[in-house]
Amino acid sequence: MKLKSSFLLTFMLAVLLTACAGQSYNLADYGLKPDSKENASPLIAKALQEIAATDHPDGVTIVLPKGRYDFYPEGASLREYFISNHDQDNPKSVGLPFENMKNVVFDGQGSELIFHGRMLPVSLVGSENCTLKNFSIDFENPHISQVKVLENDTVNGLITYEVAPWVQYEIRDSNFVAKGEGWEHIPAWGIAFEGDTKRLVYTTSDIGVGSRHVAEIAPRKILASWKNKKLIPGTVVVFRGYGRPTPGVFMYHDTNTALENIQVHYAEGMGLLAQMSENITLDRFSVCLRGKDDPRYFTTQADATHFSGCKGLIRSVGGLYEGMMDDAINVHGTYLKVQQRVDDKTLLGEYMHGQSYGFEWGRPGDTVQFIDSKTMEILGEQNTVTAIQAVDKPDDHGAKQFRITFEKPVDPAISEAGTYGIENLEWTPTVYFADNVIRNNRARGSLFSTPKRTVVENNVFDHTSGTAILLCGDCNGWFETGACHDVLIRNNRFINALTNMFQFTNAVISIYPEIPDLKDQKKYFHSGIVIENNTFDTFDAPILYAKSVDGLVFRNNVIRQNQDYPAFHWNNHRFFFQRVINAEIKDNQFDGGFDEARDILNEE
Hints:
Elements: H1 6-20, E1 23-26, H2 41-52, E2 60-63, E3 68-71, E4 77-79, E5 92-99, E6 104-115, E7 120-125, E8 128-139, E9 145-153, E10 158-163, E11 169-172, E12 175-180, E13 183-185, E14 189-193, E15 207-208, E16 214-218, E17 221-225, E18 236-240, E19 249-252, E20 255-264, E21 272-275, E22 278-283, E23 286-287, E24 305-308, E25 311-317, E26 320-322, E27 329-334, E28 336-343, E29 346-350, E30 367-372, E31 377-390, E32 401-406, E33 420-424, E34 429-434, E35 437-439, E36 446-448, E37 454-457, E38 460-462, E39 469-471, E40 480-481, E41 487-490, E42 493-495, E43 509-511, E44 526-532, E45 535-538, E46 544-555, E47 558-561, E48 575-586, E49 589-590, H3 596-599, E50 600-603
Parallel strand pairs: 1-2, 2-6, 3-6, 5-7, 6-8, 7-19, 8-20, 19-21, 20-22, 20-23, 21-24, 22-25, 24-27, 25-34, 26-35, 27-36, 34-37, 35-38, 36-39, 37-41, 38-42, 39-43, 41-44, 42-45, 43-46, 44-46, 45-47, 46-48, 47-49, 48-50
Antiparallel strand pairs: 4-5, 9-10, 9-18, 10-17, 11-12, 12-13, 14-15, 14-18, 16-17, 27-40, 28-29, 28-33, 29-32, 30-31, 30-33, 31-32
């Protein structure tokens, strides 16, 4: 990818200069002792507060001597953060709060940061030109439990399983209660993994788990009333909770941030959540296990990385993403639903999803457009925000509703009488996602919803279980914007995606906006998508699904059929299109030939 943007060159130069200049702090001088098992939370909080309060015009380097550091909620910094796509419970105990810092390099020198209870490991808020590097994040006792199936009596519906040695639990009123410091729950559902490969078990998807009507028949061995014939002895099942209170790393109002050589081994929410931030580089940022001998089969409770309402360039390269309970990357904005037409230039808009509200949505000067939620068609012309004010809170902190005034009159059709969304086009990023490995995870490999240039190249999508790449857009459920208009997917390898069915998993690459009223749609949602020079190793038929696209190219790709699993997908077409025009499929190689009459279906 040619990096022509001046902002990127400025960003890279700033990071380089920061790394070479300025004052240096060694956190050992603040009482931090590696491998001591002492609570590092109050010491880190005091150190970062003192460093942030000191002026460093030439930048600063903060060094953490290599070792293990344990963080507990006691003495940690308490913060009220409203975090996109997470539970909005507050306050949050933060291990390392980097707030209002400029030109800072934090070097963990390979340290392991181990968290206890329920904590937000790292926050980066209101920063500029900051680099965090060389450390890992994990929890001593994850909120996901893991068990191994020992016996499966499919006739009587009884399964005997062994609880992993690090899991804390008790049997209470015949229920399996997972617990830890400051938390407990009875898991209701989970994910099944092959014991030897750590891949999701074929055609299991989300399963109910044997956490009720159980008895402990020997230490850490449980007999459960649990019927599932696919859970053969040796299968490993992770018992999930419903909560996603915090990510591993939280970013908000940050500019020019680099995260380098960081591994998130577990977080109860996303591995990384960034919102309303500009120019983010992930260089060897991974959400991964602790190597091939790690006894755990899971990493994060949700996405590995997630970007909500960001702009500039998101550059994610050289990462390993595995074992997470959702996608490796998700990039989107958030629609506000129009709740009231105050006057011709003023609308009341509202965050609609219970896990996405409470943070800034836009600023005066931002360009917006309006969309009909039923057909996902743009209405009227683009407009400019001249004023925006929270309605239900003193400011945007914690707010759901905003009164927005625009430069020009808004299309007369847009009011509370219909279902309309407001999309902020200013806070939409360019994306470069390359040289990553995504494997053995639940749901999907990657999601992209931005109108700006998106390049996905040189990645390996290995047993992502659902769709490997999803181009989405939704103004009805999660209210995640928006249409893609310039996408290049090239030189990737896709290995046995679609072993399970999840939402939007219609093909290995699924272009699937949520459009409730497709039959009445007159325009098209996505456009300008090129898929070339990729290799697909697949056991089933569907390669590409597309809905509401004007301009789609699929060329010079190789599709190789294997017999690794039985074909099962309802979609038995290589290419299944709904309302797609200006599509071009050419110069591809297919094992066993290519029957265009059977393998291409285009429904208008």
